[in-house]
């Protein structure tokens, strides 16, 4: 009982809840915890002890129907707090009592079916959940936080990456998220997805496994963003998104690329080509936007023959490099370190000297750019800080704090040998 003793020594002052009518039926230990305002699970470290205490008691009193969690959630429902979101098109807000009345069961039974805690028959639980699913009703996240303890879990959603060089960004970002999460007594659940299937996210929400989510990659028409907005769960998008209602944390990719190209123009470089891929990804669109804005700022005409934005394979990158070398272009600006790596290797195989015969720069720095005889001009972003800031913003949202709609982090231009005149 050390966990119970610990809890009793550290609980806050009682809130004076009225429990006279149930006092005689509740074990003294659980009653004391309840009166002191503790979450029903008391804390994860002693949850098993508390549950065992309740079940031992329940075996002695076969007619007891409600756990303390049921009482607390039912109280919330009676006060209009434990509402449910209706996604079926019906404007009426449904409560636990409404579901109970329709199915001919008690509100506490519906509560147990939704929470997954307490004793309830499998057939009854399935019937209740099927009704909720059929009518598009889901527990309101804000109401649930009042009626039960939080999970203290957040999910970080990672894309399925096809190349190893993509991984360092997401791993580094995840380290930053984990650092802040652990400091705030939260754990992270890692989910890899293909960007289209929402089922992994839906399972987390329906089973109440997490309090919020972080999307590490955003697309122009992002299915996950739309899904999470509909479910009304706190989430943060790492990257820009064309919706002011979505909380976003990102580096200033537009401003960074614009400044880099402007600096290259100032060094006397006239014709700068752009090599990119997958313009559905918002980060790629932002970098290309910065490239275009630099041309407009310098009142220069952009030759579209020097722009490649659909390079989805190594062969396509190599072909683009060959065409640009024959066109007389002075500098190749690469969308990211992956493309830059392919460009540098291809130029080496062609016998083209950097920077004497072709200058090269990258819109994103990583350690992969340190593997060449010549150092590469690039943009450096603090990816770990991006993860930290994203996690902190999400935790603030979960705890009801006001957060900025958009957070833009700074960058650093690293001028190296690859663009020397």
Give the number of helices: 17
Q: Report the structural category.
A: alpha/beta
Overall helicity: 40-55%
Average pLDDT for all residues: 79
Descriptive report:
- The protein is an alpha/beta fold and 421 residues long.
- Helix content is 45%, strand content 14%.
- It is built from 17 helices and 15 strands.
- It has helices at residues 2-10, 20-23, 28-35, 47-60, 68-78, 96-103, 107-115, 122-134, 141-147, 167-183, 199-206, 223-231, 253-266, 282-297, 314-327, 337-350, 383-398; strands spanning 83-86, 94-95, 137-139, 153-159, 187-193, 212-215, 235-238, 248-251, 272-275, 307-308, 331-334, 359-362, 377-380, 406-409, 412-414.
- The strands form three sheets. Strands 5-4-6-7-8-14 form a six-stranded parallel sheet, with helices on both faces. A six-stranded mixed sheet has the order 10-9-11-12-13-15, with helices on both faces.
- Helix 5 crosses helix 9, helix 13 runs parallel beside helix 14 (282-297) and helix 15 (314-327) packs across helix 16 (337-350).
- The longest helix is centred in the middle third of the chain and has 17 residues, at 167-183.
- The chain is elongated.
- It starts with a helix and ends in a 7-residue tail after the last strand.
- The relative contact order is 0.09.
- Residues 1-82 have low confidence and may be disordered.
In short:
With 421 residues, the chain is an alpha/beta fold. It is 45% helix and 14% strand. Strands 5-4-6-7-8-14 form a six-stranded parallel β-sheet, sandwiched between helices. The chain has a six-stranded mixed β-sheet with strand order 10-9-11-12-13-15, with helices on both faces.
